[in-house]
Write a structure and sequence with these properties.
There is one protein chain. It contains 6 helices and 7 strands, in the order βββαββββααααα. The protein is of the alpha+beta class. It folds into 2 domains: 122 residues, LON domain-like (Archaeosine Trna-guanine Transglycosylase, Chain: A, domain 4, Roll), CATH 2.30.130; 76 residues, Up-down Bundle (Methane Monooxygenase Hydroxylase, Chain G, domain 1). It has a 5-stranded mixed β-barrel. α4 packs parallel to α6.
């Protein structure tokens, strides 16, 4: 994953209809750029619809990685609104995407479309980001991540640089979380945490 700079976002917290892309064993956080390979016909149709409008799509992690055609109830309600930055068709049935996470969303209802997944979702705002507690925790997160990165050489130097320089504590928590070797359940727990203070605390606990 690559951090987005500057941070994208939207102050629009009203519910809107978006195409949905189910993810297997992946959680994409806001503020991150991520490559995806997609081969499921239904998912490709969702991407095609997104590209005809504003290129925004909801990324919802499946509860069961082995489900080829999950029902709406088989996808997690807390998801990520993303924008498709680039699309490459590798063959007739495989496309490669570069997507950028924008914000957390709550999936409210799915439509009855059968050609692709479509859901109404609303953006979830961060809370507690401007508190002194968040600032103190952020300093600890940066310090611990520097030590973590020294032990995990696969973390790119540019990610370390962004972590050291960012003053956006919500973004900091998400960038660090996306580069930790943690379980999908832990990633989903962080994605579902709106309090930046609690999110930073979770990230610290996972690093330790």
């Amino acid at each position: 994953m690559t951090p987005i700079d500057p941070r994208p976002g939207s102050a629009d917290h009203e519910a809107h209809a978006y195409p949905v892309l189910p993810l297997r064993g992946i959680v994409v956080f806001p503020h991150m750029i991520f490559p995806l390979f997609v081969g499921h016909e239904k998912a490709i149709r969702a991407i095609a619809y997104a590209m005809k409008s504003d290129a925004r799509i909801v990324l919802a992690t499946q509860k069961d990685d082995g489900d080829d055609d999950p029902l709406p109830a088989a996808m997690h309600d807390t998801a990520t609104l993303a924008i498709v930055q680039q699309l490459f068709r590798l063959s007739n049935d495989i496309v490669k995407l570069r997507i950028a996470g924008l914000s957390r969303v709550r999936v409210e209802t799915y439509s009855d479309r059968s050609d692709y997944y479509e859901a109404t979702a609303s953006c979830l705002p961060d809370t507690d980001a401007g508190t002194m507690e968040a600032e103190a925790l952020a300093r600890s997160v940066v310090s611990d991540f520097m030590r973590y990165a020294m032990c995990h050489r696969k973390i790119p130097p540019d990610v370390v640089g962004v972590v050291q320089s960012t003053s956006d504590f919500a973004r900091l928590a998400d960038i660090v979380a996306s580069h930790l070797a943690i379980r999908i359940a832990d990633r989903l727990a962080i994605l579902g945490t709106l309090s930046v203070v609690v999110r930073l605390e979770k990230v610290l606990d996972l690093m330790n």
